């Protein structure tokens, strides 16, 4: 009976290992099928190229041309102050030979304007404080005078009673 038992055990193990191999093959086939379906879905998604109008193409070309004209010698966006003075004194700002800008860098102007605004606000605050201090001094002066007058009246009243 031991031989029969060993044969049965061997047969059970063989059947079990065969079923594991079949399951593994099925899993692989399922994975392959999933990957194939994902690839099909991606193939269906078509990205349409963006249609660019002629005007946008021209604007882009002009912008690229402008950047192509800027060299290392030029100090874009700030011209040389000496050249700017000479050009301004000659009355020809076009003497700088700068291409017409499609945009303006306003960073420096924004900072300068912000500082001006801050100074103006501080000046206004200082003026208000100055006026308030002046009013407070006047109030203090009046209060001091009133105290002196009350003291004077009290002393006069006391002297009359004597």
From TrEMBL:
<feature type="coiled-coil region">
    <location>
        <begin position="21"/>
        <end position="73"/>
    </location>
</feature>
<feature type="compositionally biased region" description="Basic and acidic residues">
    <location>
        <begin position="123"/>
        <end position="149"/>
    </location>
</feature>
<feature type="compositionally biased region" description="Basic residues">
    <location>
        <begin position="150"/>
        <end position="162"/>
    </location>
</feature>
<dbReference type="InterPro" id="IPR037666">
    <property type="entry name" value="CCDC43"/>
</dbReference>
<protein>
    <submittedName>
        <fullName>CCD43 protein</fullName>
    </submittedName>
</protein>
<feature type="region of interest" description="Disordered">
    <location>
        <begin position="123"/>
        <end position="162"/>
    </location>
</feature>
<keyword id="KW-0175">Coiled coil</keyword>
């Amino acid at each position: 009976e031991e031989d029969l038992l060993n044969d049965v055990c061997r047969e059970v193990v063989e059947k079990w290992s065969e079923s594991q191999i079949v399951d593994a093959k099925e899993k692989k086939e399922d994975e392959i099928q999933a990957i194939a379906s994902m690839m099909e879905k991606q193939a269906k998604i078509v990205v349409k190229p963006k249609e660019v109008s002629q005007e946008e193409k021209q604007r882009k070309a002009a912008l690229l041309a402008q950047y192509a004209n800027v060299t290392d010698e030029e100090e874009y966006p700030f011209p040389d102050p000496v050249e700017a003075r000479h050009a301004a004194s000659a009355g020809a700002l076009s003497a700088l030979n700068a291409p017409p800008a499609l945009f303006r860098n306003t960073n420096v102007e924004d900072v300068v304007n912000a500082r001006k605004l801050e100074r103006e606000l501080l000046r206004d605050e200082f003026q208000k404080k100055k006026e308030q201090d002046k009013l407070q001094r006047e109030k203090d002066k009046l209060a001091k005078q009133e105290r002196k007058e009350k003291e004077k009246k009290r002393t006069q009243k006391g002297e009359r009673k004597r």
